[in-house]
Amino acid sequence: MAELGLSGPQGLALGRLPLLGAVLRSRAATLGFAIVAAWAVVAALAPWLAPYDPTIIDFAAAADPTPSAQHLLGTDSVGRDLLSRIIWGARTTYAVVPLSIGSAFLLGISAGMLAGYYGGWLDHLVSRLGDVMLAFPALVLYIILITAVGPSMLNIVIAVTLAYAPGVSRLARSQVLALRHQDYVKAAEARGEPPLYIMVMEILPNARGPLIVDLCLRAGYTVILIGTLGFLGLGLPPPTPDWGGMVVEGAPLLPVYWHMAVLPCLAITSVVIGCNLMADGLRETQA
Amino acid sequence: MISFILRRLAQFLVTLLVASFLLFAVTEFSPGNVASKILGPYAVQSQVDLLYDKLDLGAPLLERYGQWLGTLLGLSENRLGDPAIGLGLDDPRGVRYFGNLGYSLMLKEPVVDVLAQRIGHTVALAGWAIGFIVPISLVLGVMSGINAGRPLDRGISGVTVALTSLPEFVTAVVLLLLFSAVLGWLPGTSTLTQGDRWSGASQMVLPVSVLVIASASYVTRIVRASVADTLKRPFVRTARLKGLAPQRVILQHVLRNALIAPLTVILLQVNWILTGVVVVEAIFAYPGIGSLLLKAALFGDIYVVQALTLLALAVAVGTQFVGDVAYMLLDPKIRLR
Fold first, then answer.
1. How far apart are CA B127 and CA B235, in angstroms?
2. B305 and B27 in contact (C-beta within 8 Å)?
3. Distance between CA atoms of residues A58 and A71, nearest Å
4. Residue B72, helix vs strand vs coil
């Protein structure tokens, strides 16, 4: 078994390293991971961290919404505490992004691995269908869904899944094609392992590296997309605090109270930067 | 080579056909939904029945798609304009012509007219943006790539990495704050109708800048990576060792090879810009087809959404086709397949 491990593909160090170890080997990835993880903690602990209820209106503060001792980051135009809204807004992002990215990768990896492993007509079908789906940008897909059935969280998840799965599937397919003639795959085939076992237990762990980099990048795009949908008023209904929605509410007051739009912008950007740093750092540890 | 182009062209048409079917299937899957979108929430049953009858809404999905495609290609009539339905929709071109995209339910006009009024603005916006993106990213990317690892490269790479992390609307908010709210140099909206206060050109600056910042930073990174990669290849070492002047090595050996790969990326940027255009037009109230798409989607104007999406699909698939052909013409190594 030891030699089988040695015959693994070169340049995919991540495949044999625990993920956290790979992250910590790069400064950029560590920083990125810290940012993403910190926001995850904020999202998880929102009810305890937020000083106020994010929907409660402080009429006294609405007269002067600038930062003060009561409201550390000030309030929005109707007097809701901005810090609390940003903290609760993290929940929206951290609920929608993992869900949609998770389902995009589940679909993409399954389709790509099956196509790469079996080849033939299945491969053709998956590739052609992927080409068609790649013609639809995620935002346009979501707009079509809204026209047909209206905005909802499920539709965001569907749009992201359909928009990103083809790209993921291409990557997974190319990984399978690169790995399927490795000795350890042949050994597993010779042992009589079922194809599903070979794909999931033998090929997938070794194809992990590029897929994880891709995942970080796409997570970043999705954070941007969710923010954009909120900004365009296509996201979740108004009482849910979401960062993009906060930006658009604050934008008309930019000349007077710039903090209302700029602070949620900073929140979104920091998460995207975190994802991109992780992708860049992990890519370098693999090279 | 001709057979390669023809095969790609056939693929292009098939992709477009399948994509248009998916589009039709999602927007018109349930006939009841179509009827309520057309007639509004307060329609009487007799009206709904008449519409079902006129538009054959009870027919199977595939048959309705065939009809829809026939109308688009000018083979069959668009019966929505029938006065008996009483929607007051009228098309001066008649009910049967090539490119018949139906009627806008929101504006009560033929979709073709609505598109014609607005598409020029969007083409201008995207055209200006691409006109800046290509030279800026090529110059910065090459400068960064040939100096890989040096301070200049670190500076350019640092800035571009940060800028690719910015959503378009964040860039827009920052630019608006700076140039419109604080400095007052540029208008906050670009409706193109405020000619007395702001010139047309000044209204274009911020929308174009937002698109350029979002896209050029990404393309710069691709160009940089490709140039830096090519510099490491053995033929560059050979050229240097045989004593060629450094400028000649860069210009004739490195760039010729390094700029082929980013070409496809630049073409794919057209897709990115399509999405960016929707966001930018919405932020600046720019009267193009991107802001129209948003309004139509929220209104439930299915025919406008179909038409604009179809246009976006044609552009996306079309650039892919152009990219494949250009790639083949530029790089003799990939003339197979």
1. 37
2. yes
3. 10
4. helix
Q: Which of residues 138-177 of A touch B (CB under 8 A)?
A: 138-140, 143-148
CA of B243, closest CA in chain A: separation in Å?
A: 31
Write phi, then psi, for A75 (nearest 5 degrees).
-125, 170
What sections of B40-106 are H helices per DSSP? Answer: 45-55, 61-72
Q: What values do phi and psi take at B98, rounded to 5?
A: -70, 130
Q: How far apart are CA B111 and CA B284, in angstroms?
A: 23
Judge whether A257 is closer than 8 Å to chain B, CB to CB: no
CA A263 to chain centroid = 21
CB atoms within 10 A of CB B26: 17
For residues B251 and B50, give the distance between their C-alpha atoms in angstroms, rounded to a whole number.
Answer: 69
Give the model's confidence band at A108: pLDDT under 50 very low, under 70 low, under 90 confident, else very high: very high
**Number of residue pairs across A and B with CB atoms under 8 Å?**
128
Give A109's pLDDT tier (boundaries 50, 70, 90). Answer: very high
Which residues touch A110 (CB under 8 Å, ≥6 apart)?
none
Phi-psi region of B232 (alpha: psi -120 to 50; beta: other; left: phi over 0): alpha
Cα separation of B69 and B310, whole Å? 12
Nearest to A167, CA basis, from A124, A241, A235, A111: A111
The confidence score (pLDDT) of residue A10 equals 43
Strands, DSSP E only, in B197-315? none
Mean pLDDT of A182-207: 86
Lowest mean pLDDT among A117-126, A238-247, B144-153: A238-247
Q: A99, exposed or middle or buried, with CB in 10 Å at 0-12, 13-18, 19+?
A: middle
Average pLDDT, chain A: 82
Asked if the Cβ–Cβ distance from B275 to A138 is below 8 Å, we say yes
- A201 pLDDT band (50/70/90 cuts)? confident
The kind and range of the H/E element at B141 are helix B111-146
Please name every residue paired with B109 in a beta bridge, in sequence order, or none if there are none: B104
What pLDDT was estimated at residue B86?
66
| Cα diameter, chain B | 87
Rounded to a whole number of angstroms, the distance from the CA of B302 to the nearest CA of chain A is 7
Please report the pLDDT score of residue B4 as a whole number.
80
Nearest to A241 by CA among A71, A99, A56: A56
ipTM confidence: 0.82
Identify from A143, A149, A223 which residue to disrupt to test chain B contact, counting B C-beta atoms within 10 A and taking the largest count.
A143
For every residue of A120-154, DSSP letters joined together read: HHHHHHHHHHHHHHHTS-HHHHHHHHHHHH---HH
B17-33 pLDDT tens trace: 888 898 888 887 777 77
- Among A195-204, A207-216, B91-100, the minimum mean pLDDT is found in B91-100
Instruction: Name the closest residue on chain A to residue B305, using Cα atoms.
Output: A144
| B22 touches A: beta carbon within 8 Å | yes
